[in-house]
Amino acid sequence: MASASRAATPLLKDELDIVIPTIRNLDFLEMWRPFFQPYHLIIVQDGDPNKTIRVPEGFDYELYNRNDINRMLGPKASCISFKDSACRCFGYMVSKKKYIYTIDDDCFVAKDPSGKDINALEQHIKNLLSPSTPFFFNTLYDPYRDGADFVRGYPFSLREGVPTAVSHGLWLNIPDYDAPTQLVKPLERNTRYVDAILTIPKGTLFPMCGMNLAFDRELIGPAMYFGLMGDGQPIGRYDDMWAGWCTKVITDHLGLGVKTGLPYIWHSKASNPFVNLKKEYNGIFWQEELIPFFQSVSMPKEATTVQKCYLELAKQVRAKLGKVDGYFNKLADSMVTWIEAWDELNPPKGGVATANGPPKK
Amino acid sequence: MRPPSLLSLTLDSALLRIAHIADLSHLPDHLVIDLFRVEKVLKLFLATGCEEIILAVQLLNIKQPLKMSSGIQDSEVDIVIAALQPNLNTFFEAWRPFFSRFHIIVVKDPDMAEDLKIPTGFDLKVYTKADIDGVLGASSINFSGHSCRYFGYLVSRKKYVISIDDNCLPAKDAAGSTVDAVAQHMTNLKTPATPFFFNTLYDPYRKGADFVRGYPFSLREGVECMLSCGLWLHNADYDPMTHVVKRNQRNTTYVDAVMTVPLGAMMPVSGINVAFNREVLGPVMFPGLRLRNEGKHRWDTLEDIWNGLCAKVVCDSLGYGMKTGLPYVMRSDAEAGKALESLKEWEGVKVMDDVLPFFQSLKLSRTAVTVEDCVKELASIVREKLGPKNAVFTKAADAMVEWNNLWKSHGAHHA
Questions:
Q1: Of A67, A21, A73, A100, whose CA–CA distance to A338 is shortest?
Q2: Out of B211, B216, B352, closest to residue A288 by CB
Q3: A253 with A299: CB under 8 angstroms?
Q4: Do residue A139 and residue B268 have CB atoms under 8 angstroms apart?
Q5: Would you tell me which residues 253-312 of chain B have a C-beta closer than 8 angstroms to some C-beta of chain A?
Q6: Closest C-alpha among B409, B355, B414 to residue B137
Q7: Cα separation of B368 and B384, whole Å?
Q8: How many A-B residue pairs are in contact by the CB < 8 A criterion?
Q9: Tell me: the pLDDT tens digits for B31-63?
Q10: B199: which of A141, A249, B93, B173 is 20 to 30 A away, CA to CA?
């Protein structure tokens, strides 16, 4: 049986930045070295800026602490969270690359069922470089994968797909559960390797986890604001959720795709469920209001760019969620600040950059 | 932010200390009752499966949250097999370990002249052309080819139907164990579906999985699953063009997941390996769309695809769910050369490009509250909106109305 020669996945080493938020250390990078070393890292140091974060030798990186964030954004720095991994979105803003991969510092290389190490970054790149299919569900999942295709009944007019904006990966070992579930099932581990990537259908919302996530910054970057979390905020552990709901509404409107499934990483650390419960407490109740809100958002035709969509979303957050809690008025303000900061640091090509270049260490 | 209520403070406190509470006996009864009256807290405690807690809940006479389903009995299931080939010995012998507990309905393709060969030892009834004509008399619905199995749905008297094509054998999973497709379909149908929000760990009711962080608690009850669409290893269900272009491609990827197809998302339901709640969904499980040159190969048909789209619209409208994924069956090769022949006259391309936009924009009225009502409304919209594009749609609308009548007179009975 003749098999077509498989084209190698491009490395994209000059087009992709890896953004890592950290408050402890970056030892986990040693395990990722074979896969990450070709790439540029953007490290966002949360917490005490006077602490020195040691980066393992041999990596090309830029590192930002709170002082850098304050200096670079001035008053706009208020939109970047403190004492929460939500601060990572600062990394998205300062990156100059087309693609972003973000990973938590307690995530390690997983093994596939054959025992082979999973190159998560390569799979994310494959996901981003092949189209998505949000308008009709393909029962054999990603039709562009080797060995798969569109099934009978799949309209031919839809087989080109749409550009993929987001690739959402999963986690073996410690699953991403909320605090109540962690309390009830403290010993549950995710051992099931589901060998699939699929497009999340248009109009369907999902819980986007920021632990193992890649996206096309040029297509969707400004929507990846991880909100106001952590110190001084009434909510935590909903940063990636918030970004995911905003992103999905915007990708649906702009005709872009979101994929979920492979690759898996190995999530090693279970955070304290009682601490998590305190952080999530408001979120658990507020999400009951948030989901109907996002499900009923409609974007005007004139919202043709991500920024325009996002600002429209901020308007609707203020109008409809302000009455749920005053926090959402603050959040709507910071959503606007985020876009202002994004546009300032990412002027349209040919425009003059008003911010200093990132510090090279 | 509203100040916390006494109850919420108590809940906070209790949950904080849950790991240290070895027993609840020192708590005054009225506090425990109040705590357990909050359904979310009650579910948390019951989910631990701890005997003492379950006993305490019963002793305190606290109403337990309703369980979705207690299980499907074997006697509630019919297995419906469309016989498109005469020799079914290999098929039934291979499926014997999984079929033998159930009542089986075999419907012989009315166009097939040869006698059927079926091994003994099954609780099995065969229906032939004579039965179809005898029961239905003159019906405008054409039950030949793959459509013959719908006759089986009509005469079944069970709550659930599982239907597998006669060229499919049990598959092996990634560990090499033989898959009990029947049991997996039953599990899919008896556990809730979750169409309102996508769970990134797929089916949250599977052992070792759950709802992930960010999944709204109010949506975690799920809805009743009405249809389970399984998959195929080896010879996948492709259209004839793909069969020709990728004649050597075989599906070898075993995806270990079941998932709910979200609300509003349309999908191609393949009739090769499917199970459904006949009691509820029967009126919409019809052979509606018949291609002009429908043949005996699956790629010559779209009847199941049309059926599935209608069923999905109805499920979305009435608050039911549909699942896809496991179980797999092993589907044997068809002669790829035949696909080339089918291509010449294949109108499937044109038809699906008209069909999908239609279904995507379809919204049934709120007054259609039963499946029959939905089908009636659907049929008239099909006739009005799609009929003008292609006569095949007008015929489909006719078939849907006819099926509704047939269901009323022959199908709407239960054991």
A1: A73
A2: B216
A3: yes
A4: yes
A5: 253-257, 261-268, 270, 298-299, 302, 305
A6: B409
A7: 18
A8: 202
A9: 666 666 666 567 666 666 666 666 766 666 555
A10: B173
Go through the domains of chain B in sequence order and give each one's CATH number. 6-60 (no CATH), 74-411 (3.90.550)
Geometric angle at alpha carbon B194, from B189 and B200, rounded to 5°: 115
Model confidence, pTM:
0.88
Half-sphere exposure of A112 (CA within 13 A, CB side): 13
User: How, if at all, do strands B77-83 and B160-164 pair?
Assistant: parallel
Inter-chain contact A152–B261, Cβ cutoff 8 Å? no
**Residue bearing the bigger pLDDT, B286 or A359:** B286
* Contact present, A230 and A144 (Cβ < 8 Å): no
Angle B290-B293-B298 (CA atoms, 0-180°, nearest 5)? 70
ipTM of the complex as predicted: 0.93
The dihedrals phi and psi of A101, each to the nearest 5 degrees, come to -120, 130
The alpha carbon of residue A289 is apart from the nearest alpha carbon of chain B, in Å, by 9
Please report where in the chains the tokens 């303000």 appear, as a residue.
A333
Q: Is B217 on the interface with A (CB under 8 A)?
A: yes
Query: Which residues are CB-neighbours of A281 under 8 A, at least 6 positions away?
Result: B12
A168 vs B200, B229, B360: nearest CB: B200
- Residue A265's SS3 state is strand
Strand partners, B321: B225
Identify any residues that bridge with B225 across adjacent strands, giving them in sequence order: B321
Residue type, B343: L
Question: Is residue A2 over pLDDT 50?
Answer: no
Is A195 close to B218, i.e. CB distance below 8 A?
Answer: no
DSSP A138: -
DSSP-assigned beta bridge partners for residue A214: A101, A167
**Residue A178 CB-half CA count within 13 A:** 28
B258-304 pLDDT per residue, tens: 999 999 999 999 999 999 999 999 999 999 898 877 778 888 888 99
Nearest CA-CA distance, residue A192 and chain B, Å: 8
Q: Which residues, including other chains, have CB under 8 Å from residue A296's CB and lie 6 or more apart? A: none
DSSP symbols for A302-320: T--SHHHHHHHHHHHHHHH
Interface membership of B12 toward A (CB under 8 Å)? yes
Q: Mutation test of the interface with chain B: which of A136, A139, A174, choosing the one with the most B Cβ atoms within 10 A?
A: A139
For residue A168, give the nearest of A83, A265, A253, A239 by alpha carbon: A265
Touching check for B360 and chain A: CB below 8 Å? yes
